[in-house]
Amino acid sequence: MSSFGYNVLGFGSFSSRGAPFDVEYLLVAGGGSGGGGYYGAGGGAGGRLFATLSAVEPGTVFTVTIGGGGSAVGKNNKGNNGTNSTIAPTNLSTLTSVGGGGGGGNAGDRGGKDGGSGGGASHSTSNLEGSGTSGQGNDGGAGPGNSAGGGGGSSEVGEDGSVGGDGNGGDGGDGTASSITGSSVTVAGGGGGAGYSAVVAGGAGGGGAGVTAFHQTATSGTAATGGGGGGHRGGVLGSTSGAGGGGVCVIRSTTEANSASGASASTTGDFFVYRFTGSGSVTF
């Protein structure tokens, strides 16, 4: 094992592991899928948490669970919420990012679902956009008239659909960039609502685009970003909304881990980086 970055902080030799250290983490849940219907709304992005755990004790095990994206839906149905992602360090409180909210569909109240970021509202529902979770994401967009709102993203509310006639859907809210892996990567973008003619973009950070014509399959959220799925317009057998993208977790420390399972390991500057796209653990 290398002592790289450990003695620099004055903590003693790596092998002694006698002093606490800090751990940075990025945790993103699975995104919600878009809704189906005459104008299906965009799915909300998975919740995003980014922070530092201070004074972590040597020997701490971080058990990671990565949430999957909400499954795609067909005609009239509301989108499905994504699944939560968690980090469970031994002797510390479990950290949870909340799955993104599904986009509104043509059936029922047509409203978007609450989540890490909220799903957009389907057509004729100006005040039923899904709510985001404080500190993790934003609300979805409204669907006034014949239009659908975009799903919320971690840094931006989903855009409202346009008003009047056959309107265009709202773009998905943008996600948030981070350089925790050593290069800038944007995650947790919302899905676009279904539109009439113009392209309805998903939010930066893996949000799927909404469709612009009947019977098309919308774009899914990008894997390992927690992006929301795009909204679906009309519907026949086999055409669906976009599924939500699965979540991701990155753990970074100046102390090298003793062991890691289910993670891709790398280094950047003085840091050791462990990236999870599925369940696993890392032991320091």
**Helix coverage percent of residues?**
under 10%
Query: What does the largest sheet look like?
Result: 8 strands, antiparallel
Cα Rg:
20 Å
pLDDT under 50 segments (min length 5)?
A: 1-16
Q: Which geometry do the CA atoms define? A: elongated
Written as H for each helix and E for each strand, in order along the chain, the element string is: EEEEEEEEEE
- Mean of the pLDDT scores? 90
Distance between the termini: 11 Å
Structure class? mainly beta
Query: Count of DSSP E strands?
Result: 10
What would you say this structure looks like, in words?
The protein has 284 residues and is an all-beta fold. Helices cover 0% and strands 23% of the residues. It is built from no helices and ten strands. Strands 1, 2, 3, 4, 5, 8, 9 and 10 form an eight-stranded antiparallel β-sheet that branches. The protein has a two-stranded antiparallel sheet with strand order 6-7. Strand 4 and strand 5 (95-97) form a beta hairpin. It is elongated. The N and C termini lie close together (11 Å). Mean pLDDT is 90; it is low at 1-16.
